[in-house]
């Protein structure tokens, strides 16, 4: 793995150095146009890094100093001789340069010592065109060799840039371009993605809320003058936009449709498609700050977002756009400001898809006439120039007779005739897939999109369906396509039978099925599926999520979204569907086609391990989804969703925390204990809302991950405070005057408070650090304080004596008895003394009865002694209370 990382790093370095060197060489003057037929060449060889560690890649810079006049040109046939430390010679090549005259080549030395490298340029003739005046001319550059280069290879590896770790503290946009590793957690949601698979996110593992923003009037309506009994009426909530009037971006039912989007850390949404004017809100998804609002054109909707990765010979960068398309006129707006950037008119018809660099494609396939054409938006800018200066603030005509418009048609080829159906999926650089299914057959075909093979028929397959499909008039749907065309599958659903079948996207052939029948409720509209991580998921009205191996169809696991309180009237589990898949996690949530009032309480939002089906977290009643509007989306590792219970927009993710710690402000005496106390609070943007400040004047306590779902209901929705809420662990470190550390772990209570008593052993200044090491809900936070310890000034007792010690000392001063005897011992001693007073007899006579006056006197003595002890102890106890 380390070797792979090193190769990845050196490859990246190689690319950067190559582009840099190419840019530098552009500045080298071209050979002056003159009427000569030959010219001397000046080959060169460079090596980066030099010295280098053995088995570490080296980027060789190879070429001649003369550049060419067209970017398509390059010098041909260059070679490099390599002589290793043992004198063994080898050759690299032949090599073709780019138009700068040079190029890069990776070389990995395998021996410690000195290598000698030399570039050899063969004689060749090229036709050059002057930059300004004159006619093209031929010139021959003569063969030559570079000066030998000494490459030093050492046993120890050289260091590369160490990289940066993922954030351990709360972070915001912008992300410095040097923090490349953070790209893996900074994803965007530009449109509803294929399979709702959204990589480049750290999927939240608790229901922790970052901020909340009202979408419109929401929540329970309450009573009004003249209304009938509320219980009879049904405890209505405010209208939530379901049943054909979806809010939170309007109805989104198909991949590529409009809805809320996230691009580069900014969330864009509107309340719904029927609200005029249609106002879009641009919000920082990490802080909840509203950055701007805007109505686009004549109350038009955002069609999709775009991150366009532009790489030309002279410029590299990513452009962020919001597209507002009306028919064949497409308008690009700057995602940062919302301002108009450019318009493309007469965009050709076809299927819209996005390429690997975010470029917009329109594929037009004419099955009747046997041809297909591909229109590429990015080709409107030339590879020699800068995208922005070529297209911004312009109106471009895709149908115009211009070089740029013609260049945009990057593909126009013939295809086999006799194909039926339509394009189902497009995998750029790989293939086009068409699938259609009826009660009698499943037919499919594939056309190649690989360079040089475009339009070639890959397969054409027809599978005869089981007889029961036609006999039962079964509804057949193609429901899912895996993200990998060559190794993937497409899945067909026989609805009334509740069975799935899998087919190869490489050959169209049947692979597996049928699966065992699912719950009968999954025959209803609303059952949806997805494929990711080679797992096929089906979930729907039954409230059961089923997982199958996408390659084999084998059953893996199932999850029941159990309704513990019978709020759903048709099943024992909540109707759920997939929201999205990311970071190995599947997110499910409840919505309903035509919900009634009062709405069922406790609708779940669920996060599962995609591979095992284990529940990572579940929040009941926090984020109920809408069937007719948009659902939860994710970007920058933060979930954004509307909740139909209260018509507010929520952001869910890992938030910041704050830790405080304090110790005695004045020095304590040696031998006494110090009380260390502090708090850990949630300081996410939502906690700054005045409503929360009024309820939590001392801050919102941070709580344990397992308490988060119920805690968020309490904090943000005013539910009862959970009785079993748990605090978070705090790591305490105490540094004594000698530089030694002492540590322990304490846990906060439901108010976020912790305390700790500790008796320092030596005199001096102590430093206390309280660290909350973070959780899945919060990032790390810490605080430090100090306190002092003075020497003791007490002479008699460095440590005050206990009551028992004082009592023992008093008893020891009684003359007769160093130790206080028991009543039995006193009686026995008195008897013995009486015996000793009797006359001596050869045989011991029967012991007479002890005179009562002697027994009474001795008992009185013992009672007095015990009374003295009790009195001393009582006096000390009373004194201590004072």
Description of the molecule:
The structure is a single chain. This protein is mainly beta. Among the domains are: 2-154, Macroglobulin (MG2) domain (Immunoglobulin-like), CATH 2.60.40.1930; 673-790, Immunoglobulin-like (Sandwich), CATH 2.60.40.10; 803-881. The chain is 13% helix and 35% strand. The protein contains ten helices and 54 strands. Strands 3, 5, 6, 8, 11 and 12 form a six-stranded mixed sheet that branches. It has a five-stranded mixed sheet with strand order 18-19-20-21-25. The radius of gyration is 41 Å and the shape is globular. It starts with a helix and ends with a helix. The model is unreliable at 1-34, 252-257, 837-845 and 847-882 (pLDDT under 50).
Task: Give the arrangement of secondary structure elements.
Blueprint: H1 2-26, E1 38-39, E2 43-48, E3 52-53, E4 58-64, E5 78-83, E6 89-95, E7 102-107, E8 113-121, E9 124-128, E10 137-141, E11 144-145, E12 149-154, E13 209-214, H2 230-233, E14 261-263, E15 266-269, E16 280-284, E17 290-294, E18 304-311, E19 316-326, E20 329-334, E21 340-345, E22 351-354, E23 360-366, E24 371-376, H3 387-391, E25 394-397, H4 403-407, E26 409-414, E27 425-427, E28 431-437, E29 441-448, E30 457-464, H5 467-471, E31 476-481, E32 489-494, E33 499-504, E34 510-512, E35 528-532, E36 535-539, E37 544-549, E38 555-560, E39 576-582, E40 585-590, E41 604-609, E42 615-620, E43 633-635, E44 638-643, E45 648-652, E46 657-662, E47 668-669, E48 674-682, H6 690-695, E49 700-701, H7 708-717, E50 729-735, E51 741-747, E52 753-758, E53 764-772, E54 781-790, H8 803-812, H9 823-836, H10 852-881
Parallel strand pairs: 1-10, 3-12, 21-25, 47-54
Antiparallel strand pairs: 2-4, 4-7, 5-6, 5-8, 8-11, 8-12, 9-10, 13-45, 14-15, 15-16, 16-17, 18-19, 19-20, 20-21, 22-23, 23-24, 24-26, 27-28, 28-29, 29-30, 31-32, 32-33, 33-34, 35-36, 36-37, 37-38, 39-40, 40-41, 41-42, 43-44, 44-45, 46-48, 48-49, 48-52, 50-51, 50-53, 53-54
């Amino acid at each position: 793995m380390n070797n792979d990382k090193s190769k990845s790093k050196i490859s990246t370095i190689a690319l950067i150095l190559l582009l840099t060197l190419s840019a530098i060489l552009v500045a080298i003057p071209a050979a002056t146009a003159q009427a000569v037929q030959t010219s001397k060449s000046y080959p060169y060889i460079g090596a980066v890094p030099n010295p280098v560690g053995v088995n570490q890649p080296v980027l060789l810079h190879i070429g001649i100093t003369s550049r060419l006049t067209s970017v398509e040109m390059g010098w041909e046939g260059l070679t490099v001789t390599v002589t290793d430390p043992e004198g063994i010679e080898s050759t690299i090549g032949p090599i073709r340069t780019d138009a700068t005259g040079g190029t890069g080549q990776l070389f990995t030395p395998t021996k410690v010592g000195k290598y000698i490298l030399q570039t050899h340029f063969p004689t060749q003739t090229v036709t050059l065109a002057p930059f300004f005046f004159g006619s093209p001319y031929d010139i021959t550059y003569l063969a030559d060799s570079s000066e030998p280069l000494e490459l030093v290879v050492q046993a120890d590896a050289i260091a590369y840039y160490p990289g940066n770790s993922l954030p351990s503290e709360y972070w915001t946009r912008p992300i410095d371009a040097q923090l490349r590793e953070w790209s893996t957690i900074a994803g965007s949601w530009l449109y509803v993605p294929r399979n709702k698979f959204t990589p480049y996110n750290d999927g939240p593992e608790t229901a922790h809320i970052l901020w909340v923003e009202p979408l419109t009037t929401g929540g329970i309506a309450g009573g009004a003058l003249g209304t009938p009994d509320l219980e009879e009426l049904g405890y209505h909530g405010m209208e939530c936009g379901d049943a054909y009037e979806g809010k939170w971006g309007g109805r989104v039912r198909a991949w590529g449709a409009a809805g809320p989007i996230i691009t580069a850390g900014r969330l864009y949404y509107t309340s719904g498609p029927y609200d005029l004017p249609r106002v879009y809100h641009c919000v920082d998804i990490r802080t909840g700050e509203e950055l701007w609002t805007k109505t686009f054109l004549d109350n038009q909707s955002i069609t999709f977002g775009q991150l366009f990765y532009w790489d030309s010979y002279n410029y590299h960068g990513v452009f962020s756009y919001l597209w507002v398309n009306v028919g064949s006129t497409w308008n690009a707006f700057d995602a940062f400001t919302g301002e108009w950037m450019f318009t493309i008119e007469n965009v050709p018809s076809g299927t819209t898809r996005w390429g690997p660099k975010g470029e917009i494609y329109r594929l037009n396939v004419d099955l009747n006439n046997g041809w297909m054409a591909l229109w590429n938006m990015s080709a409107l800018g030339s590879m020699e120039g800068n995208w922005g200066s070529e297209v911004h603030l312009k109106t471009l005509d895709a149908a115009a007779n211009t070089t740029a418009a013609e260049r945009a048609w990057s593909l126009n080829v013939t295809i086999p005739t006799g194909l039926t159906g339509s394009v189902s999926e497009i995998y750029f650089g790989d293939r086009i897939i068409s699938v259609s299914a009826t009660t009698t057959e499943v037919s499919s075909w594939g056309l190649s999109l690989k360079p040089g093979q475009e339009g070639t028929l890959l397969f054409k397959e027809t599978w005869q369906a089981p007889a029961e499909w036609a006999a039962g008039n079964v509804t057949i749907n193609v429901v899912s396509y895996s993200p990998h065309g060559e190794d993937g599958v497409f899945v067909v659903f026989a609805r009334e039978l509740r069975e799935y079948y899998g087919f190869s996207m490489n050959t169209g052939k049947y692979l597996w099925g049928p699966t065992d029948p699912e719950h009968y409720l999954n025959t209803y509209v609303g059952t949806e599926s997805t494929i990711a991580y080679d797992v096929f998921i089906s979930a729907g009205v039954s409230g059961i999520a089923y997982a199958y191996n996408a390659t084999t169809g084998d059953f893996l696991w199932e999850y029941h979204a159990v309704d513990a309180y019978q709020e759903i009237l048709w099943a024992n589990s909540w109707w759920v569907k997939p929201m999205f898949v990311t970071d190995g996690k599947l997110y499910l949530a409840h919505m309903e086609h035509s919900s009634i009032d009062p709405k069922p309480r406790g609708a779940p939002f669920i996060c599962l391990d995609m591979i095992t089906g284990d529940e990572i977290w579940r929040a009941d009643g926090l984020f109920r989804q809408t069937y007719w509007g948009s659902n939860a989306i994710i970007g920058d590792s933060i979930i954004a969703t509307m909740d139909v219970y209260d018509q507010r927009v929520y952001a869910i993710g890992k938030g910041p925390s704050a830790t405080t710690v304090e110790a005695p402000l004045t020095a304590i005496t040696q031998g006494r204990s110090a009380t260390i106390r502090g708090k850990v609070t949630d300081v996410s943007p939502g906690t700054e809302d005045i409503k929360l400040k009024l309820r939590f004047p001392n801050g919102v306590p941070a709580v344990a991950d397992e308490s988060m779902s119920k805690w968020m209901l309490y904090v943000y929705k005013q539910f009862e405070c959970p009785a079993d809420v748990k605090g978070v662990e705090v790591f305490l470190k105490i540094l004594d005057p000698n530089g030694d550390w002492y540590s322990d772990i304490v846990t906060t209570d439901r108010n976020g408070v912790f305390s700790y008593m500790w008796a320092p052993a030596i005199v001096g200044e102590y430093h206390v650090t309280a660290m909350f090491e973070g959780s899945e809900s919060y990032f790390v936070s810490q605080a430090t304080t100090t306190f002092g310890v003075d020497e003791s000034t007490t002479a008699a007792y460095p440590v005050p004596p206990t009551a028992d010690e004082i009592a023992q000392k008093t008893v020891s001063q009684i003359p007769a008895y160093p130790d206080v005897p028991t009543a039995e011992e006193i009686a026995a001693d008195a008897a013995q003394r009486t015996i000793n007073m009797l006359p001596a007899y050869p045989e011991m006579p029967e012991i007479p009865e002890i005179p009562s006056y002697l027994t009474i006197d001795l008992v009185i003595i013992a009672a007095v002694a015990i009374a003295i002890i009790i009195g001393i102890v009582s006096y000390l106890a009373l004194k201590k209370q004072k």
